[in-house]
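Review this today:
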Amino acid sequence: MTVRFLLDGDIVTLTDVDPTATLVDHLRYAMKRTGTKVGCAEGDCGACTVLVGEPNAAGDTVDWRAVNSCIQFLPMLDGKAVMTVESLGTPDTLTPLQTSMAANGSSQCGFCTPGFVMALHGRSIGARGHTLPVADVLAGNLCRCTGYGPILAAARDAPPVITDDTGLLSALRAIAPTETTGGTHATRRWFAPATSDALATLLVAHPDARIVAGATDVALWVTKGLQTIQTLVFVGDIPDLRVIEESEAGVRIGAAVRYADAHAPLARLHPDFGELVRRFAGLQVRNAGTIGGNIANGSPIGDGPPALIALGATLTLRSIRGRRTMPMEAFFLDYGKQDRAPDEFVESIWIPRPPAEDVIHMSKLSRRFDSDISAVCGAFKLTLNDGRITAARVAFGGMAATPRRAPACEAALIGEAFDKATIDRASVALGQDYTPLNDVRGTAAYRTEAAANLLQRLWHRAAGDPVSLMDLEVTDGRP
C-alpha cells in the first residue's frame, strides 16, 4: 500500500513505508528540504514545525495545524497536505510575515527561526489560530538566543493571510483514503482503519498491535528509546472517534479528538479546565495529541486524567465484544497497567457538566510555565449546601504510580463547613493518601507540600484572593 500527501500542490507517493519513519527525516533526507530543523527529536523545541492541512468539518476550507514533524510518522500524513518553510516564498518574494521577521531583527543564530515562522504562519492562515494570543502559539517553540521580543513584535506586525482553498480541497478529496489502508515494511506492519468497527476487527487479529493516535508519546519510544514496534494501528483519522457532543448534561468527546479541538468545549465546562489545557505542552503537541491517547497511555503525570477524575468523568471502552463503561479513576490499575483488554480501545469520554455553584479548581506545577510536564497536577470539585461540603472529589497526578483520588482528604472535607480550618485539616490528610517519589521534577517532600498548597489555592480562589498573575490581570507578555 502507498502513503500519499500533498506538498505545495504536488502529490507525493510513498511505497514500502517504514511505519515509524518520521516526517522530518523524510523532508530533510529524501526531499532535501533542510529548512525544517531537528533540535530535540521529541516534540519539545519546535524547530521542526511544519503545517499539516486537511478539510475542516464543513468541508469548505482547509484546516491547517502546526505540528512537530519529528514525531509525525509518515502513515499519519496519508490523505493530507504538508507545508514547510520552503513553501512560503523565495528570497525574492518573502511573505509579509517573513518580511516582518527580517524587519524586526527576529533571527539571531537562525536555527529555530523556520519553526517560529511556520508556527506563526499557521496562526495567520488557521481559523482557530487567529483566536490565540501570539505567545500561546509560540509556547512550543524554544529559542536559545532568547530572541522572543523581536519575534513577538514581528508576529503582531504581520497581517492575516487570505487563501483560496478551492483547488487544494479538490486535490485533498482526490487522495483521501475511503477504506482501511495499511502496509508492510520488512517484518513490520501498519494499518489505518477507516471506522471504529474496522478497528475493533483489526484488534482481534492483531491484539499485540500498538494503537497510535497523535504519536506524541509513542514517537519518543522510537526517536529516543530506539524501540522497534512490529505492528501499529493508526486511529487518529477515524471519523467516529473524532466527534464532540455538547449538551446541557455534559460533553462526550471521542478518543481521537485532539486537545486543540477539545480546548474550547472543556473550557466551557469550567474555565480552570480551559487554562489547564492551554498549558498542555505546546500548541504543536495539542494539535496532534488526543484526549484518548493521554488517558490510554496511563502516565502518572498526564494532566488530563486528574481533571477528568475530579469532574466525575466516565470512560467507554469498545471491542468486537461490545462496550463497557467505567469511572475514569477505575481505569488506572498500577504503573503502566490499565483496565483494558488487548482487543479493546478507548472509544469516548463522558464528562458531566458541573453545577454552577460547585467549587472547582484545577492547577499544575511545572519547572517551566509553558510546554512542560507537571511535577504535580491537582483537581478539586466540592459540592456545597448551606455552607457545608456535601460531596468532594480530589484527584492528583504526579503523586503516585497512577492518577488517583485522595480518599482521606475527601473524608476530611465531606460534612464539614467550607472554611479555612476545614481546608487546613484536609491539607494535612493528603499526607495519608500519597507517598510520592523523588525524581528530576521534584522531591517527595516538595510534592507533598505542593499538593497541600494547591488545595489551599482552591480556598483562596473561592475567597476572592489573587493566587496567580492571571487573577491580577497581568498577561505575562501575552498579547
